[in-house]
Structures are given as C-alpha cells and as structure tokens.
Amino acid sequence: MRIMGIDPGIAIVGFGVVEQHGHRITPIQYGTIETKAGLPTPRRLKQIYDACTELLAKTTPDVVAIEKLFFNRNVTTAFSVGQARGVIMLAAEEAGAAITEYTPLQVKQAVVGYGKAEKRQVQEMVKVLLSLSEIPRPDDVADALAIAICEAHSAQLQRQLHVAEQRSRRKSE
User: Are 100 and 85 contacting, i.e. CB atoms less than 8 angstroms apart?
Assistant: First the structure.
C-alpha cells in the first residue's frame, strides 16, 4: 500500500510518501510545497492545489492521510490552514485516493507510543522507523512522514481486525 502523509499549511505543506509491505515501511519521496508570503490567499491556494495534483499523479498513493486541524490561538492562521486542507483534500479526492485524518495526539501515539510526546521524539522515531540517516527537514516534512506512518499502523490494525472478524464469523456458522 502506498500512503501519502500531509502536514497542511498555507506557507509550507509537508508531504511524505511511503510504501508499506507487511510491517515494513519504506520512504519513497518527501519534501515541501511552499508558497510566498505576500501573495493573495487565492493564488497561494491554487499553487498548493496544482502542486498536490501533480504530486498525486506522480506518486499515485492509495491513501492520503492528512493532519486534522486543531484549534489554534491565531484564528487567521487556523482559517488559512483550513483552506489549504480543503484544496489538498479536493486534489486527493480527484486523484481517487482514499482520505484519512488524524489528530496530532493520534500521530504521536502511533509513532512514539505516547500521545504527549515532544516533537523531537516524534522526529527521532520517524528517522528510526524509516531507516533514514538524518531527521527530515524542515519539521513539516518529518510531521508529514509521521502522519503517513500513523496511517500505515492504523491500516494494518484495521486489516488485522477485519481478518479476526471474518474468522469469528466462520467459526460461528
């Protein structure tokens, strides 16, 4: 299964594409989509949408996992990030990828095993789990890869539950 993790933003969108084979997760491509400050918001959103559309076509993920927006003290920033999430989700939907969403707490729990882990702990685990030589930079990239790892772990658990349910049904028949 190919998974794209997205850390949404209006200035920087982090992305990470991984391939999952059983318990093994391999990085395929990761980086950022950046827009320049000072550009009108609609133009920045169009740039994010166009870049995501191109990236989705190039990497063909089965699933796009995106960080859920949590309440931010800066309402203007929260609205901008929400708009960016919207165009990213639209691009993923048009590409035919399944879309999942995770809170930062869920991502930390899946990657580190502790929902209140510090950012540095998450980054270090991303490096270890993906066998990278260094922590991906900027932070948005490491966050996107962590979101992809979270989806990989969650999807694997869902598959295991599905198999267990099927076995249970067969036994009861």
Answer: no
**Angstrom distance (rounded) from CA 90 to CA 49:** 8
Residues annotated as catalytic are 7, 67, 140
* Both structure tokens of 16: 């990470």
HEC string for 36-77: CCCCCHHHHHHHHHHHHHHHHHHHCCCEEEEECCCCCCCHHH
What is d(CA 46, CA 32) in angstroms, rounded to the nearest whole number? 15
Tokens of residue 57, six digits:
């076509």
HSE at residue 47, side-chain half, CA atoms within 13 A, is: 17
| CA nearest neighbour of 139 among 151, 150, 127, 149 | 127
Give per-residue pLDDT as tens, 101-126: 999 999 999 999 888 888 899 999 99
Q: How far is Cα 75 from Cα 162, in angstroms, rounded to an integer?
A: 40
